[in-house]
């Protein structure tokens, strides 16, 4: 895309900023999302991974116990973390970086659905529903992730039920918030 002074388009007045021209709606949404996310990131400095885990586990001991079930991954830009249609074996936590969620529809060009940022979790729905991945997730830049495998999750349920209950409570809260957010989007789209 490229920018054109707004005063040169549609009779706009000089000094009113720029109009961004992009190749398609997908890129337009991405451009807007990138600007919003940049503002949000600037407004709140990301906490460290331990602090993020501490928000839902409550204390350092539970964070340390939970981290024993995770595998740390360094992901390169453009690297796929999960691929649409493949079996779901892991839940991921984003410590650092951004990832793109892409949906392949009818063999066409992938549609970019959203951006996943530091502090987020993804992949849990397909794991708990024992389904294949509904979309591809690809690193937009360098990322640090933590992977919780199905086997480690089972090990936690069997060996540390109190910790597993805290994680399950976090999942319920997280999924409930997503449902509320999606309902708000649908409500706005139908107005």
Question: What would you say this structure looks like, in words?
Answer:
The chain has 191 residues and is an alpha+beta fold. The longest helix is centred in the C-terminal third of the chain and has 29 residues, at 161-189. It is built from 6 helices and 10 strands; from the N terminus they run E-E-H-H-H-E-E-E-E-E-E-H-E-E-H-H. 42% of the residues lie in helices and 25% in strands. Helix 2 crosses helix 3 and helix 5 crosses helix 6 (161-189). The radius of gyration is 20 Å and the shape is globular. The chain has helices spanning 25-43, 49-57, 60-67, 124-129, 150-159, 161-189; strands spanning 2-5, 18-21, 71-75, 80-82, 90-96, 99-103, 111-116, 121-122, 136-139, 143-149. The strands form 3 sheets. The protein has a 4-stranded antiparallel sheet. Strand 6 and strand 7 form a beta hairpin.
Q: Mean pLDDT across all residues, rounded?
A: 83
Strand numbers in spatial order across the main sheet: 3-10-5-8
Distance between the termini: 30 Å
Shape descriptor: globular
Strand content: 15-25%
Taking Cα atoms only, what radius of gyration do you get, to the nearest Å?
20 Å
Discrete helix count: 6
Element-by-element helix/strand order: EEHHHEEEEEEHEEHH
Question: What structural class do you assign from the helix and strand content?
Answer: alpha+beta
Assembly level:
single chain
Unreliable residue stretches: 42-46
Helix content: 40-55%
Q: How is the main sheet built?
A: 4 strands, antiparallel
Strands, count: 10
């Amino acid at each position: 895309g490229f920018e054109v002074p707004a005063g040169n388009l549609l009779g706009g007045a000089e000094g009113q900023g720029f109009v961004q021209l992009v190749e398609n709606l997908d890129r337009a949404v991405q451009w807007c999302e990138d600007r919003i996310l940049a503002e949000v990131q600037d407004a709140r400095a990301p906490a460290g991974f331990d602090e993020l885990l501490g928000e839902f586990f409550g204390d350092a001991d539970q964070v340390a116990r939970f981290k024993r079930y995770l595998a740390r991954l360094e992901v390169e830009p453009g690297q796929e973390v999960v691929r649409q249609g493949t079996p779901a074996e892991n839940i991921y936590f984003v410590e650092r970086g951004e990832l793109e969620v892409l949906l392949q529809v009818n063999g066409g060009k992938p549609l970019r659905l959203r951006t996943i940022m530091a502090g987020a979790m993804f992949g849990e729905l397909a794991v708990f529903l024992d389904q294949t991945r509904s979309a591809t997730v690809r690193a937009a830049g360098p990322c640090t992730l933590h992977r919780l495998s199905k086997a480690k999750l089972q090990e936690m349920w069997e060996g540390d039920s109190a910790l597993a209950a805290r994680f399950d409570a976090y999942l319920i809260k997280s999924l409930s918030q997503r449902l509320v957010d999606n309902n708000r989007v649908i409500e706005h789209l139908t107005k």
